[in-house]
Design goal:
Helix content: over 70%
Shape: globular
Radius of gyration: 22 Å
Number of strands: 0
Order of helices and strands: HHHHHHHHHH
Distance between the termini: 46 Å
Strand content: under 5%
């Protein structure tokens, strides 16, 4: 006798497909009247149920899907900005990514330190660094849709988009200076030996030079190469319209 195959994959596919269909039918009402986006569906999902109740599986799934979604969104951020936007607006972006991020990091860390009892200042700096970068996905709530078109100037929308896309990578130094200091100077004497000098050496050498500078160089090389290849294929009519539009997402 035929039976339904109620495996997790089928249930998840049906749930997400149903949500996309229903949200699509009501998208104009939900976005323009209630200012709700697709990300609101995350509030009704119980991730542990889809990780077979295993916390380790849940952490791995969350990490890798977060990386995937963030990478794709960061590429979309770059596509949304006008051509040569950073060349003409680097001053305002530099203020936000420099003094602005430092002020947000320190003020958030001080609030956490004051509100959470028995938490050291170094640990507060680490927590503050995690919430300092503006999320490029959640920022869509204020830069997309009818609310943004009516209340937020286009120049401000573009600054928020560019700042949200750039500050994720620049949040690493704030996080790891706290983690390295905790590891080599804190933890009540249970950390590793080395002191502040070794912590700063790792922070400059490993974090700034390897993670950030090398990532920027890698992104520039891959981006320029991909741009040249795309224009070469377009000039010779080797790429169709659908592939042309999703090519940028593949770079993520």
């Amino acid at each position: 006798m035929p039976t339904l195959s109620l495996v997790n994959f089928n249930i998840v596919s049906a749930a997400f497909g149903g949500f996309i269909a229903i949200f699509g039918l009501l998208s104009h009402l939900l976005k323009n009247d209630f200012y709700l986006g697709e990300a609101s569906a995350a509030n009704v999902i119980r991730p542990l149920d889809y990780a077979h109740g295993d916390e380790e599986n849940l952490h791995a799934i969350t990490l890798h899907f977060a990386r995937l979604v963030l990478c794709v969104q960061l590429v979309i951020v770059g596509v949304q900005l006008p051509s040569q936007y950073l060349r003409y607006n680097w001053k305002s972006l530099a203020w936000l990514l420099g003094p602005g991020m430092i002020a947000m990091w320190l003020s958030t860390s001080l609030l956490i330190w004051a509100m959470v009892p028995h938490l050291s200042f170094l640990h507060s700096l680490a927590v503050g660094a995690c919430v300092t970068p503006t999320d490029p996905i959640l920022s869509n709530a204020i830069i997309k849709g009818a609310f943004a078109d009516q209340n937020i100037p286009k120049d401000l929308q573009r600054v928020i988009i560019s700042e949200a896309g750039a500050n994720d990578g620049l949040g690493y130094p704030f996080l790891f200076i706290a983690l390295y200091l905790i590891k080599y100077t804190g933890m009540g004497g249970e950390g590793q030996p080395g002191g502040v000098r070794l912590a700063m050496a790792y922070w400059f050498g490993e974090m700034w030079m390897y993670v950030i500078v090398l990532s920027v160089i890698y992104g520039l090389v891959v981006g320029l190469l991909a741009s040249k290849l795309l224009h070469w294929a377009e000039d010779r009519k080797l790429v169709d319209q659908e592939s042309y539009h999703i090519f940028a997402i593949a770079q993520g």
